[in-house]
Amino acid sequence: MKVVVLTGAGISAESGVPTFRDANGLWEGHRVEDVATPEAFEASPHLVHRFYDARRAALAAVEPNPAHRALARLESELGERLLVVTQNVDDLHERAGSHRVLHMHGQLRSAWCLACDERSPWQEDLSHGPACPTCGASALRPDVVWFGEIPYGMDLIENALGDADVFVAIGTSSLVYPAAGFVRLARMWGARTVEINLEPSAATSVFDEARHGPAGELVPAWADELLGAVRAT
Ligand code: APR
């Protein structure tokens, strides 16, 4: 059985990482959509760096929750038959023990040099204009995919969706494309599709099955069911 899991901000909510579109959705008075664009970075690089510096720094205070750990457990049994595609820029899947994680929207703990095009693991702030470890230029940007940019790994993701028997979307509002369209692709190519989210998302009606509630409870239960089915075959 081949499984593709798509995760969004909701899987990290119980770890204390804020989602993008909660009741308030603002950061220092700015809409997230207004800070997460190449145009915003060009116009106000310091502001955009500070937004991501704050998010990167906040990672030090959070830990994976039972939903991340359940997916790591699934990978330890399914191995290459499981791919986690995440829209999240945090590293909680990896810290829970997952290895097969594709960060389609990039990662906070990576910096991308606009001078030499190298990406480097990064833990510190970027707003003070540190030097690129490869070329020395002060030209690092957060290695995250902004609105209007092309997500990472699309070919690999589409191949995996084409092969999947099961597609599960966890903790995503299904408002941002292309990720929001994965359920339709997976369905078209024959996968059974399941949504796990706190509340109905914009795409709930497209899924074969929807389970609504906190990911920290529902994901471990779903993973146990899936492993039971795998072991029975
Ligand atoms: N368990 C399950 N789902 C939850 C939980 C929880 N504990 N808490 C919140 N959710 C759900 C919310 O109900 C919401 O539907 O998670 C979803 C989070 O939605 P968004 O904040 O829109 O996050 P996401 O879908 O990941 O956003 C997609 O948009 O801003 C861009 O690039 C950014 O990757 C992000 C993309």
What does the model show?
The chain is an alpha/beta fold. Helix content is 35%, strand content 21%. It contains nine helices and eleven strands. The protein has helices at 10-13, 32-35, 38-43, 45-58, 66-78, 92-96, 154-163, 182-188, 215-232; strands at 3-7, 26-27, 30-31, 82-86, 101-103, 106-113, 119-121, 140-144, 166-170, 192-197, 209-212. The strands form three sheets. A six-stranded parallel β-sheet has the order 5-4-1-9-10-11, with helices on both faces. Helix 5 runs parallel beside helix 9 (215-232). The radius of gyration is 18 Å and the shape is globular. The protein starts with a strand and ends with a helix. The mean pLDDT is 95. Bound molecules: adenosine-5-diphosphoribose. Adenosine-5-diphosphoribose binds at residues 8-10, 13-14, 19-21, 32, 87, 105, 171-173, 175-176, 197-199, 201, 214-215.
